[in-house]
Amino acid sequence: MPEDRDWEAYKVPPTRTPVVESTTLCWPVCASCVTTGLFTEWIERQQAKNKFYYYHQKFRRVPDLSECLEGDYLCFYEAEAQWRRDRMVDQEIVEIVRERLGACKQREGPNQFQNCAKEMEQLVQVTKAYQDRYGDLGVHGNARTCLMKQKHRMMEERKAQENASQ
């Protein structure tokens, strides 16, 4: 490291900073508004007029595809959009449960099989429910094919019950 430093490159801050003698407000009228609360009341009124909510958007539940009338294309569209939202929510639920299981495994280490049994059972239930509803639909699945899959599954269960009772 060189001994001759360039003091101009690294200037030292001044040792004494100047002190302002008196502080004056630019708008003395505003100072009285702030002290009386008129200004804050005006700000609150303005904010109340232009409310912006930061939480999730809530959609109303629309009728299922089976409840739509024949030829009601708007109802078909809304049911399809509702189905897609439900599918995204179910995907996130599966992902959250999977992350919880991974965190439990990471936390417990070698004791994961006995200490994370509850999370493992929950993941099995959630993935089975997701697979029952959305499995084998593919990436281009829609509400109509999902409804048909549900109908076929219910018919198979009914046939299995009839065969078991005979």
Describe this entry's structure for a reader.
The protein has 166 residues and is an all-alpha fold. It contains six helices and no strands. α3 packs antiparallel against α5. The radius of gyration is 33 Å and the shape is flat.
Write a brief structural summary.
The chain contains six helices and no strands. By secondary structure, it is an all-alpha fold.
Which helices and strands, and how do they pair?
Elements: H1 28-36, H2 38-49, H3 73-108, H4 112-115, H5 117-134, H6 143-165
Helix pairs in contact: 3-5
Mean pLDDT: 82
Please provide the ordered H/E string of secondary-structure elements. HHHHHH
Computed Rg: 33 Å
How would you characterize the largest beta sheet?
none
Strand count = 0
Stretches with pLDDT under 50, minimum 5 residues: none
The amount of beta strand, in percent, is under 5%
Q: Count the helices. How many?
A: 6
State the separation between the terminal residues, measured CA to CA: 96 Å
SS-derived structural category: mainly alpha
Morphology call: flat
Proportion in helices: 55-70%
